Amino acid sequence: MLGSIAKFLELYPDAKLVIEPSSDPHNYNCLISGQWITIKKDRLSDNEKFLLSLVSQDNNNKSVDNQWWKFLVHENDEIPTGDMNVRVLQFEVQKLDSDSRAEQWLNVFKDTFDDVVETFWINKYTGILIEKETTTNPDKVEIQRMIQLIDSDFYTKSHVYVGQFWPVDDKLPNIFDMERQLFHKSLEMKEDVNNLSTVILDFLIEQNLKNTDMFKGLKKKIDVDSKTRQMINTLYECDSNLAKTSKMLFLHRNTLLYRIEKFYEQTGFDLKDRNDLVLCFLLLK
Fold it and tell me: Which of 57, 59, 127, 161 to pair with 51, CA 20 to 30 A apart?
């Protein structure tokens, strides 16, 4: 059996042995002799994919029978709902040993949120929670606490990517395409819960996002006036030092803090947080 895996890796040098199947939609996963192997889909012909599906011990590429999922992955153009903003939380959970255990985990995770629109598993390891935007949505720190408690109860290891809030319209599937890639990148991060601010710097090394709907939307959201741009740029140049920034802007420190708080209320980005500040700085470039 080990010889079969060695032969596979000899035939496909770009393939990798992994503990869990990859969540990246651009990867193909195959289970051989109890060992997961992942390889980029563009490295395989249609005939090769078909042959691998025959020898694989697990068909993890089945379509998900869910209206929201079909909309998000461009399988169905029908918009599930309107007149609301939602964010998509993507999660990977390791060490769930049965379907019933997975459903229990999902129910507990769902119950920690007040405004869930939909939640479902994509496969044995990854799932989706869609949350409506309200005034009481938990932030990254609160979600981190939730995950730590759930993992402690279930003896699991979970990773969550918290998406941004977006209108439910025809642009959302394209934005979700990008958030899927960011989720995959977040699995390489040390923290168990990540969002755009914590992942983007690493991701920018690999991708150019400036022409995507997501970045255009974020730039429009934060680039409101010249004073805001100046505040963000100066905070970045001063390495988040409020005293130095207020001095350079000829503002009282309390005035600067007030503007930072107003910016947070309007955009959801906290300029006192280094990750949020760097993201806003990059968006204005």
Answer: 127
